[in-house]
Each structure stands twice: as structure tokens, then as C-alpha cells.
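Q: What changes when calcium ion is included in the input?
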Amino acid sequence: MMGSALPMNSNAEKTRMIAKRLLLSRGPALVGLLVVGGVARAQHGGDVWVGRSAAGQLKVSPAGFVPEDNYAPLAEVNGPLLWGWSDNDPGFDHITADDPGNDALQLQAGAEIWLEVVAMDPALRMLDAGFQLLDSPGDATFLGDQGLHVHNTWHIDSLDVDYDPEQCVWEATFILRDEGGTGYAASEPFTFHGLTNIPLIDLDGDFDDDGDIDADDHAALPVCVAGPGVIPAPDDPSVTTCEVECLNAFDFDDDRDVDLRDFAEYQRVAGQ
Ligand SMILES: [Ca+2]
Ligand SMILES: [Ca+2]
Ligand SMILES: [Ca+2]
Ligand SMILES: [Ca+2]
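A: The predicted holo structure follows.
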């Protein structure tokens, strides 16, 4: 690995401060909380699978966690180190078997794979096993060789001055790049669309989760309907501004939209 790839900017200082707070507060027990995985084991279906195309470009396999299509709910955390929401999933795993149908092949010996930030929403950040903070374009962390398997820490920071309480989905865009002898081309940028602080639950039409389906729930439906194949974009602060709340309540067929098919199912359960 090339030392020059380590970002030596203000992030290094931020990282040091976090590590210091960590070690001063609880020591190794907390370190253990932040560092999960890294050992070879069965391929994680909930992880991003990293591989390459036959033409030698790094890529994310569509057979694993698809950043653009999958929600990743983070769990609430209330200190002493992190406030807001955090989780070690999704992680990054290597492809363990060639998948020619998806042009997603295993990495070869000599690969040295890095994850680099292209863009990250305010109040969102990633911490790696070395307590490096990734939140700005160009920040990068080493994922490993051809057998990489890493679970970094995602964190939505509720104390960040830019934290927006009306936001419920955060985005992060990365590229993968190779600094090893394999010399793979960098991946296309890929975006985690669904890092969310809202638990994914099936509310079966009960939008306000009060055990009934009544006028309050009816009122929320039009705010959530966006049509087939379209992720809801609710924009009524008196009801919700959160797509995940809409999908929890009204996406009966679990295809990330609220359309006429969902409406028909809503009418059925509301009529019971
Ligand atoms: Ca209700
Ligand atoms: Ca009610
Ligand atoms: Ca649909
Ligand atoms: Ca649907």
C-alpha cells in the first residue's frame, strides 16, 4: 500500500480527538464496540460485495447489498462516544465466487482496495478501525486485499450543527480504487441511498402506529403516494417528510413505491 494515499488533513486531527475521547472514556471495551468483523467467514448477504469486471474495473456486485436500492437502518446511540444513530452494517466483503452473469468476478492476489469518499451528506460520517473519520470528498480508508472484509462504523451525528431533524435518509457516495499490483480501474461512483435513522417496520396501513386504521392514517396516504416505481418524497411537515415512514405504512408489496396496487391493499385492510 502506498503511504501517500493516507489523507493527512484536518481529518487526522478530528480522528485523533475522537480516538482520545474514546480511550479516555471507556478504553478497550468501547474500542471493541467500534471494531467488528475483519475475520474471514461466510460471505455476508448484508454487505456490499466488492469485485471486478472481466475488463478489470472494480465494481459492486448486484448480488450483495446494493447501496442504491437497500435501506440500512442505523440504531440509536446515546453516548458516551457517539450520539445519534450508528451501526457497523452494511460492511464490505469480497466476492467469494465468480459471477459471470453479473460480470462480477473475484479479486485476484495483489489487489489493495481502498474506499474513497466522493460525497457525504452533512451529519453523516464513517469511522474506520483506525478511528479515522471519513466525511469529506477524498477521505479514504484501506479495505484490504483480495480477501477484504471490513465493517466500519456508520454514524449519523445528532450533535452536528448541520444535523437536520426533518431528514431521515442520508446519502454517501464512494468509489473503490486499487493501489495493488493488480492495477484495476477505479469503480464507478456508487451511492448509499438509504442510510436511515428510522427502523424498517411493517405497519400494514397504520401510519401513526396507534393500533387502528382511521382518518389520521387516510390523511397520510396522499402525502405518500408518488406512483409506480417512484420512491415517495413526502413534503408535508404536519404529516411527514420521511420516505421511510411512508414505505413502512403503505408499501404493502415492498417494492419501494406507494402506488395503486398498494392503495388497493390499503383499502382492503382499512375496510376490515
Ligand atoms: Ca392509525
Ligand atoms: Ca387512530
Ligand atoms: Ca409498485
Ligand atoms: Ca409498493
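Observations recorded in class: The first strand starts at residue 48 and ends at 52.
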